[in-house]
Amino acid sequence: MQFSDRPNDRTTIPLPAQPHEIALPPRIDRRLSARVTLHRIIMGILGFGALLIVTALKPTSANADSCSGLANLSLSNTTITAAENVTAGAFTMPSDPALPPAEAKAHQRFAEAFKDLPEFCRATATIRPVADSETKIEVWMPHSGWNGKFLAVGNGGWAGTINYSGMGQSLRRGYATASTDTGHAGSGGDASFAYGHPEKLIDLGYRSVHLMTVDAKAIIAAFYGNGPRLSYWNGCSTGGKQGLTEAQRYPEDFNAIAAGAPANYWTHLMFATIWPAFADLQDPASHIPPSKYR
Known about the structure:
The protein is α/β, with parallel strands linked by helices. It has 2 domains: 2-57; 64-279, Rossmann fold (3-Layer(aba) Sandwich), CATH 3.40.50. 37% of the residues lie in helices and 17% in strands. It has helices spanning 26-57, 64-68, 101-108, 164-172, 198-224, 238-249, 266-281, and strands at residues 2-3, 11-12, 78-86, 120-127, 135-142, 149-153, 176-180, 230-236, 256-260. The strands form 2 sheets. A 7-stranded mixed beta sheet has the order 3-4-5-7-6-8-9, sandwiched between helices. A two-stranded antiparallel sheet has the order 1-2. Strand 1 and strand 2 form a beta hairpin.
């Protein structure tokens, strides 16, 4: 049998003692050995990568001790006001004295919807980046079955309240979730908080959501031992506008944004809502009485 390592090179290789073994020229032998070694390295890397993927996708659990320990977490310009374990079905939505009676009653209708919430860690915090700025946030994290993702939820109207309903929906699906009152307490239809308080208007405009997001990721990482692998935003109306603002000002905050029916371009939008009232009320003859709406 002959093997050639170079063109026009013929070298006779004697058969070894064992008929099933063939001695190869040194150069070919080295090449095959290198290929076998490379193949083993590649397979090892692929196997380790698969292990990492499986580990990352595996639902994560935590314990009550790590939840209460969040009260000692140090965050810039932020005070953790509470960190408590909430057993399954035990959450009760806080009453909000700033809401008008009709809106408060509507909020309480959600109470029954919280009966099926799983056990979770509830962290509340207040952020004070500058004078006359005070943003409240809540971060909820499932004790078991966390999908490794963070889903923040938006507000409606002029905000002023935590979106507990949206947080509950996110929690049921295995997300760690967060919401903010956007820096003031009040009804979604009341903008009086902004008069004479430019910092609170800035909080509503963009600052509160960004700071909430930064703090929420830090709280999640402290609770589980690692931060979310993916972060999402979900909001409609004002929440849609908040999503667009995040994409424009802080594109690193979220991996994906669902901005539904965004109430965008507020300088035009707010004056557009004022105009019909102005047209209706400037002349008594233009007024449409309630009886004509029936």
